[in-house]
Amino acid sequence: MAKITKIAFAFLLFYGTIIATIWQTPEQFPPHEGCIQRAINYLNVVGGDTISVLQGTPENPEIYYENIIFRGKNITVINRDFLPGGNNDPSTCTIDGSAHTRGDDSASVVTFKDGETGEALLQGFTITNGNGTFYNDVVYYGGGILCVNSSPIITRNRITKNNVTSITFRGRGGGIAIVGENALPKISHNSIDSNYAYYKGGGIAFDYFAAPDIDSNYIYRNGYWESSLTWRGGAISADNENSVDQELGRIYANKIQENVSTHSCAADFYDATPLVRLNEIIENGISQPSDNVINCDASFGSNALPNFGSREDPGLNIFKDNGGEYDLNNGSQSTLTAQGNYWNSLHTPDIRNRIGERIDFDPVAASDRVASVTYNSECETDAIVTGDLTVDEGVTLTIAPGKTFQFFTADVDTNTGDYPTLCELLIKGKLQADGNEDEKISFVPYPPTPVTGGWFGIRLRPYFNTTGNFNNCIIRNGYCGIEASTNSILYVDSSTIESNQVYGLSIWQTGIAKITESDIKSNIYGIYSNQASPEITNNRLWNNSRYGILLGNTNTATISENQITCYPPVATPMLYGILLGVVDNGVLIEGNEIERYYSDAGIYCAVEANAQINRNKIMNGQNGILCSRNSNPYVRWCTIDTNKVGVSCENKSYPNLGIVDLAPQPDPGNNSILMGNNIWVANYI
What is the dihedral of CA 159, 165, 171, 176, to 10 degrees? Predict the structure, then answer.
């Protein structure tokens, strides 16, 4: 029983400002009359005042045995532990409805029914042992809280062990019930657990055009009482009798876990149209299996269905480890939208079997966070991919021309790839992305104009025959456009790879890598290749600030007919056009145009680079060819002009620029190291 002594009236500073009278209870009201209710009744104001309710401790809480009604007063009723300096713990103060102080055989613990607005606030209590209110001679509603045609704020409470058990009158809303077209409450950051309703909505029910904002609550273990299960909607039900497609209500960012019912363990929607986004719907229907996790239905011919996500506005709901036959069931004749959610995996036939055919669903647009494509799939829609997406080993994902894949940025990644903060497209099987000149396939971040490096990029992982085929594609604004690693096969043709934070292309120990007719621009490193034998032909590498191409540790490779340049003004001029390190004479650098690199070298033979360098045009930089650390390239038919130094040699490097007196047959270099260079050849050995 609450410790009730006397009431003190004081004008206090509240959050630093005098905003209204704060009434501290209990003080003068005897316990049998209901301390909190007496304080509410005392107030003659319509709104603005605060009733600060004395709290105990979690081990010894204050318990108020009463059922309270706000009586149309837009006031704050708050657990004193939630005032500045408190611990914000609802277990310190309980409102227990078992005493039925209103004189009813049963009653809701807290009732809003006289048009209270968003200025009415209930905060910080444990609300328990309510049985619901018989409303409009129809139904028992709201064991813990009943809100009729009112719009209060209900926040940071624990609503637990309330039961609406009436069989005759089909009880609804064990924890909370919201009723009426003028009911627009904000229900946020509450713990709603262990509540029961005989008919619908073990945790929450909203009916008759009510449109609550249900945001960031933990709704768990509702729907069970004394071996009886809630019939529909273990966590949430909505029965709005809404015959038109008009959005009523918002269910956003809640965790809905371990709820049970006979037919729809997480939620049941009938002629209801709430917007459902960013909810985590997990482990429902495990202890007591249900027909469905979420059931949606509408009157014949009606479009009144909830919105679980569209291509333009993805749902981002997680459906995971639930026990129902269907994660999401549509029993109506209308199509339900459910794009951009996570369904554990993207095995297309399995998902279609689980969610039914009357659901607007795409196997890739539906991916969220840790999804994988486990079945050969053809994607013929644009897709918003909201986390790491994996194409499994032995599986082919084919993307139709003209489609756009947008990848959410770092805050939703769950580290299924190797990079814990960036979303990735991981290819373990095969990605076939064949666009055409008029219908290019795009891989870009979401939203379309984020900072560079908002997602990781496309990664070909080290599995046998992992293949990425990119034709007429656009890949931009990642950390790395494409990363191809051990034994993978990479084909890039007629594509644009631009504005990635570090690498345009990163190639390491690949089986095959062919890059042709593509624009690789505005990255830090255009193409990085190590321990691979790529063919890089007829590409345009523009404004890559560190180098256009780095090639290292290989015996064979071809870099030919590429344009490598830097157009001013750029923040960081290109350092090297082509950088070679530890390459043998099986590497051919031929027919490239390298100019406006402004900084170190058009071709930098950095370490033991013995490549064949033929017919290249190298202009407008510091060093045309710079050879260092035992590099001895074979240089023929090159045009080297307008550099500070045409060919620069250092650290025991001896490039072969031609030998005229070689007997019996001379081997002239035929290089044109022209007068535009300040120095033709400089030897610093």
Answer: 0
| Residue of 672, 615, 617, 673 whose CA lies nearest to 644 | 673
Mean pLDDT: which of 177-186, 232-241, 355-364 is highest? Answer: 177-186
3-state secondary structure 147-210: EECCCCEEECCEEECCEECCCCCCCECCCEEEECCCCCCEEECCEEECCEECCECCCEEEECCC
List of domains in the chain: 371-683 (2.160.20)
Cα gap 61→55, rounded to integer Å:
7
- Write down how long the chain is: 685
Q: Are 631 and 652 in contact (CB under 8 A)?
A: no
pLDDT digits (tens, 9 = 90+) for 66-114: 999 999 999 999 999 999 999 999 999 999 998 776 555 568 999 999 9
* DSSP label of 321: S
Cross-strand bridge partners of residue 256: 219, 281
- Sheet strands (E) in 288-352: 292-297, 318-320, 326-330, 336-337
Parallel, antiparallel, or unpaired: how do β-strands 383-385 and 404-408 relate?
A: parallel
- What's the predicted TM-score (pTM) here? 0.65
- The alpha carbon of residue 608 and the mean position of all alpha carbons in its chain are separated, in whole angstroms, by 46
Extract the runs of DSSP E, i.e. beta strands, from 456-524.
457-460, 467-471, 473-476, 480-484, 489-493, 496-498, 503-508, 512-516, 519-521
* DSSP E strand boundaries for 11-46: 22-25
Residue type, 598: Y
Q: How far apart are CA 226 and CA 436, in angstroms?
A: 64
Beta bridge partner(s), residue 127: 95, 159
∠ CA 588-594-597, nearest 5°, is: 130
Distance of CA 404 to the CA centre of its chain: 17
**How distant, in Å, are the alpha carbons of 374, 397, 467 from that of 394?**
9, 10, 10
Q: How far apart are CA 633 and CA 670, in angstroms?
A: 15
DSSP code, position 410: G
d(CA 25, CA 602): 81
Pairwise CA distance, residues 182 & 29, whole Å: 34
